[in-house]
Each structure stands twice: as structure tokens, then as C-alpha cells.
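Example (one chain per record):
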Amino acid sequence: MATSSIKPRWSGLGARLMTAIVVVLVCLAPFYIGGYVWAALVAVFSARMMYEWVRMTDPEATTIAFVLAILGLLISLLYAAQGLLFWAIGAMIAVTMFAVAERLRRGNPFWTALGLPYVIVPAVVIILLRGTDIGFDTRGFTQLIFIVLVVIGADVGAYFGGSTIGGPKLAPTLSPNKTWSGAVSGLIAGCILAMIAGLFMGLPVWLSALLALPLVVLSVLGDLAESMVKRKIGVKDTGTLLPGHGGLLDRLDSLMAAVVGGAIIFMLIGDRWPIG
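Predicted structure:
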């Protein structure tokens, strides 16, 4: 009986694993190189996410609605690739205003006003955080990979912990599959992976764990926030691009929140980061 209750929850594990491997292989070289190469990959991924957002929140979207959203994204990312944060944010604000004005004719402009910054800000941050220095032993690479590993650890820990242990739901009205056991398992796994990564980066174990805690919390909140949007709109997934995952927004919502929070945390700790 126990086996049958667990099996459906793990039935998509193979597809999820293969998708994760493909994504890692696609990202590895640009991640190592950084700069415009990394920015180009981020632009491709985030353009797809923007497309998913517009399609999900605006069933009657016109061609101009997609063009404005994606064009604003690409302009912002071009500025980000040059290290021009304020220009990137300015471009985002300007295009968001145009996109909202275009949406007014169909109603519900709130989703447009929310969606463009929701996709653009994390994409800008992930480019700026990675930087232009090439190599594994650079500040940008190590900080970004630290965030990515914590989010992966939290996600994997929550998946297996929640599926195996079960128990009370974390937020049943937003995400019925998430449990408190999964959240705790994800927190533990994220901290463990952070401490292991920190050993290679020269971080004290206590600091690695301390940095991981808010990142895991943010990743969970990012996931729940998108679940809330999807429930409000009445859709299950943002797309079907990734087998076992849904759309890119479904897969990267946790990372988007953690990257923004992580960038702020790294600014606060300053020279405590041992690399770069």
C-alpha cells in the first residue's frame, strides 16, 4: 500500500532528471565564460519565460503585446551585459508603461505591470551577478553557482522528502503537493549542499549555512508566489517546454527569487566572500 502511494509522486522522476541534465549541458559553457555569451543565453531563456507569462496572463494578447514585452526585456539585458544597471531598470520601466497602456484596451493591466518586472529584474540581476570574468575561480561564477546549488539542493530535498515522508501541507490552497516535511527536507539539503560548496570556495561552514537559509526560504516563496498567480488565473503550468517540469517559469521561479535575494546578501557581506 505504501509503495503505491509513493510511486505516482515519483513517476516523473526520469523525465525531470533528463531535463535537468540537458539544461546543465546547455548552460555550462556560457556560465563558465560569462559576459555577453552568458547574457545571450539568459536572454534566450528569459524571452521564453516572458512569452509564457504573456500567453498565460493575457489570453487575447496581440502581437504587439508580445513584441513590447520581449523587446523591453532584450533592451534591459543589453544594458545589463554592459554593467549599466540603472539604464536597464529605466528601460524596463519605460517599456512596462507602454505595455500597460497597450493592455488597457483589453483590461487587467495589473498582470502586465507585474509580469515585465517579474521576469526582467531577475534576468538583469543574474547577468550582473555573473559578470564578465572568465573561469571557475571568479567572484561572479562562485557566487552564482552557490545560489544555484542551494536552490537545487532545496528543490531535490523537498521533492524526495515530501514524497517519502508526506504529512501536513505547507500551503494547500496554493500548492497542494507541497508539505512541511518537504520544506524542512529542502532546507536541510540546501544547507548541506551550501556547506559542501563553501568548503571548495573557502567559506566557513557556519557562514555557508547562514547564507543558505534565506536563499532556501526565498526559493520556496518564489515557487509559492507563482503558484498563487497560476491559481488566480486558473492554469496548471506556464507551458510544456520541459518534460516533467512544465514551462521555464515553472522550473525557474524558485531561482528567480533566490538570485535577487542572493545578490542583495552578497552586497551586504562584501569582502567576506573569499573569491574575487
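Caption: Residues 1-7 have pLDDT under 50 and may be disordered.
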